[in-house]
Amino acid sequence: MRGTHERFLIVLTPGFNADRMIATARHNAARFHCDVLAVYVEQQSFSEKDRRAMEEPLSQARATGVRVDVLKGPDPVDSIVQYARSHAITQIFVGQSPRRDWRTRLFGSPVSRLVRAAREMDVRVFPH
Fold this sequence. Notes:
Layout: E1 7-12, H1 19-32, E2 35-42, H2 48-53, H3 55-63, E3 67-72, H4 76-86, E4 91-96, H5 102-107, H6 110-117, E5 122-127
Parallel strand pairs: 1-2, 1-4, 2-3, 4-5
Helix pairs in contact: 4-6
């Protein structure tokens, strides 16, 4: 498609090794000559330990030239999708835990909700 410009979004979360997502996004961005952005959705339920755990991935993303924005909102999936749409994102890079609890079985995982909500974007899932 002529005139299409790729833009990648990395979704950073506590407890996930962001190295691989950042490296993959930067590698693909070099091939496509496109922008890479990253977001972290801060939630009220996060502990101080979660916030401290995010310092390294956020610093790492910034050190590689990735623009990082911290989002706040009651629903992380909605916050991510709204951000992605407003920034013309074409691909989202996100990590997923193999953990399955009763909420995930009943309502679906946040990643499956993200895939459904971001219909017009590609979502690349990196397992923990």
